[in-house]
Amino acid sequence: MEEQATQTPVETGNEPQVFSMEQALQDAEARLEKTVQRGQIVTGTVVFVTNDGVMVDIGTRTEAIIPLNQLTEENLSEEELKNLLKPGDTVTAYVVRADLENGQIVLSKKRAEADQSWVKIQALYERGEPVVVQVKEKVKGGLVATLEGIRAFLPASQVDLKRAPELDEYVGQSFPVKIIELNRKKGRVILSRRVVLESELKAARARVLSSLKEGDIVEGQVVEVTDFGVFVALGGVDGLVHRSEITWGRFSHPREVVQKGQTVRAKVLSVDTERERVNLSMKALSEDPWLTVAERYPIGSRVTGKVVGLTQFGAFVEVEPGLEGLIHISELSWTKRPKHPSEVLQEGQVVEAQVLRIDPAERRLSLGLKQTQPDPWRSLPDRYPPGTPVKGKVTGITDFGVFVEIEPGIEGLIHISELAHERVEKPSELFKKGDELEAAILQIDPVEQRISLSRKRLLPPPVQALSSDEEGEGRKRREGKGAKRKSKGAPREGRARERDLDYGVAAAYTNYDPSVVAPSTTNVKLGDVFGDLLSQLALEEDKKEKAQ
């Protein structure tokens, strides 16, 4: 007897689908035999939604439930959670609990999603690929973002190339990051945006370095100003304009010339691709003022400039940016002899000077300040002919004489031999600074700026101890004996008196140096000595004759 199968029609679409009783029994047995274990990922169909959760048919004899709090990581209301799934939806979930004897199977949809996310995150971490994330909130020490539904931490030190002082502006932003640390057991995902930026910057730097060559004219923004120069951004690489290449002019600090954020043009001096360095020059785009200095400022012309520096040996004057001249301390005044230029000029003062010498090769420009004023030394010989008496104060005392100021800034020297008729060993014992002396002009040299004076020429002659008759007889004997000594090479008589009238012979000096004395001084002094000796000898002979 043939066994007849019982068929149950099931409508599927437009045509009914017929299941035999045998198939239904097999399906029921399969349900009874199918078991699930904790930790499995299962797929099922939503049957209905209750206040406790979502009931899901996963092919077991009992239906499983997904509690509402296991549906998603998002913070939603109960009503919103109920509307996430509807009957007939296919859902994948993680088996949290499987108690088939008591008919309890608890699933978690968000945990299954997290498991899938960890798999994807692991793959991204192993490949080292950047991924775009959105920052959700700011926390202590950094930011929190969501990566494949998993909370990830972005430390403050990894947000940008430089540590950002404020992180609030990054909340809500989306940008690429790279996973730098992953620990699934601890649920730790550490991200870095700085690594991505550094990689992009390195690629951009390589492109820029390969495109730059010596002599190129570039334009960029000043990103940093330091003591030694200026850094200019060139789209991925920063070029350095050393302080010596900023301008031809003088400055104390580069920020006096350029400011951070300013757009500048410069010329490429060199490119070092290995060290990733680019040297630039801003002043190379302007003409070197020393190339045409001789044409624009010929010798003898007058220039106006600002005092930009004072040294022990002179003052530097900026004629124009990049062109400076030196006024030597000896060229500051006709009459003053300053120990330091600050006694005559001040830094920042605008002065007029005369061009004295030009050396473009050595980049030197010599200027004179006193040449712009009348030279008082040229008129001195006319105003003070030899023999003119003058008065002045003692300004200096040396072993070889005394300096006397006859006009403001103009000094003359009374040599030690011209201080008095008698021999002076130490001028400092007879005179002191500030004493007023009267002297006669012996000689004036306006070229060397020297004045020779004599004090003894204005003093009365020394008093003789003999009477007039004895003096007359002594004079006759001295004349006779002087004539005999003349044949033996002795100086002729009367040299001392002639010396008193000879204003043209003076004790010369060179730069007030006591070790340098002109030959004329030696001759005069020797004449004085021999004259005095002859006089003394004659007097002694007269005394002997009278005694006889």
Automatic annotation (TrEMBL):
InterPro entries: NA-bd_OB-fold, Ribos_protein_bS1-like, Ribosomal_bS1, Ribosomal_protein_S1-like, S1_domain
GO CC annotation: cytoplasm; ribonucleoprotein complex; ribosome
Molecular function GO labels: mRNA binding; structural constituent of ribosome
SUPFAM superfamilies for the chain: Nucleic acid-binding proteins
Basic and acidic residues bias spans: 473-482, 490-501
Region (Disordered): 462-501
GO biological process, one term: translation
Keywords noted in UniProt: Repeat, Ribonucleoprotein, Ribosomal protein, RNA-binding
Highest taxon of the lineage: Bacteria
Record Pfam families: S1
Occurrences of domain S1 motif (ranges): 39-110, 128-194, 215-283, 300-370, 387-456
NCBIfam families (UniProt xref): PRK06299.1-2 (NF004952), PRK06676.1 (NF005208)
Family, as annotated: Belongs to the bacterial ribosomal protein bS1 family.
Function: Binds mRNA; thus facilitating recognition of the initiation point. It is needed to translate mRNA with a short Shine-Dalgarno (SD) purine-rich sequence.
Protein name (Swiss-Prot/TrEMBL): 30S ribosomal protein S1
Native species: Meiothermus luteus
